[in-house]
Amino acid sequence: MRDLIRRIEAATPPDRDRSVDALRAFAVAGVVLGHWLVTALVVDSGTVGGSSPLRHLPLLVPVSWVFQTLAVFFLVGGLVSTRGYARGVPYRAWVATRMARLFRPVAAVLVVWVLVAGVLLASGVDPQTVRTPLRLVLSPLWFLLVFAVLTAATPLMSKVHPAWPLAVVALVDVLRLGLSAPAWLGWANLAAGWLVPYTIGAAWARGRLRDRTTLWVLLLGGALATAALVRWAGYPASMVGVPGDGFSNLNPPSLAAVTFGLAQCGAAGLLLGPLRRLMRRPAAWAAVALVNLAAMTIFLWHQTAMIAVTALGLLTGQRLPGLHTVPDGPAWVMARFGWLPVFALAMLVCCAAFHGYERVRPTRLKVTTTGSA
After folding, report:
1. In this structure, are residues 250 and 239 in contact, taking their beta carbons and an 8 Å threshold?
2. I need a surface site. Which of 62, 67, 217, 275 has the fewest CB within 10 A?
3. Would you call 107 exposed, middle or buried from its count of C-beta atoms within 10 A (0-12, 13-18, 19+)?
4. What is the pLDDT of residues 276-299, one digit of tens each?
5. What is the C-alpha separation between 263 and 72, in angstroms, rounded?
6. The whole model's pTM is what?
7. Residues ≥6 apart with Cβ < 8 Å to 229
8. Coil, strand or helix: which one is 181?
9. By the 8 A CB rule, do 277 and 17 touch?
């Protein structure tokens, strides 16, 4: 382990901004732990369905405030893409490299799950049981599609002020929620909503919107706006979708999700200094670097790891607490915490098997952001 830490430290360019990688690692960890904690596969009468402890235990809603970190992904993405494009690489070569880093790992996931679904259906497994894990694995891919579009449009999007897409989100929500406009209008927020943190990251890359006053305004203003929208405008308190609820802050992104993202951007900016100091410690930096090197693999396969553990648990012939049971009480929560290390071990197996698809050029150890958000 000490040798690995030394190798990573020696391979890191001295001018690398490690704090940005730390933000990305935080965002990855948030997505993974959030899904593992608020997603349940319930076995009932031989059929597997999805549920969430947030539906049965409203007191757990604050969990979604901690682990819904998508705004940080887009913030870092806008920052890194704008910096990378500014280095003068021809656009076609630059965007081809970025798209390869995003979509090469996706191909492996799709092939594996198409085969798994085909085998299960051919074996007579109930279609609902097949549909549930497929939805869990494939639904997060919308993130990559939106991210790819914004990345490809970086030369234009990096010049947009965040206030413009924020205004679009507010207008769309007024129309669809306040004036009974068609619900499909909300899908305009899928691009506009995540463009807000993306353009903030782009502004940071140009040295703008990074002073402490602005960051505090983002943090406090975003938090207060989100609280006001939840308290007086009828937005859900949960920052993730809850099965059975008629309205989600994430699908498509609502104004509350975007203002919450503003608060996250402000907090991220204020943490850059402390993170920079923390990343001077070789052990801390090694952990962050390893997460970044496998960021796409972790993002794409963490749900598969949870599903695999759940499926293997069925071989015991029992409905294991925290794995197959309804998430309707504190006992389920405590049992689920006990399963987290098992999920992590399964994810390491997935990373060992599929990390090669994330590396555009599988060469010697090199601390880069291949597959990064």
Report:
1. yes
2. 62
3. exposed
4. 999 999 999 999 999 999 999 999
5. 10
6. 0.93
7. 235, 255, 256, 259
8. coil
9. no
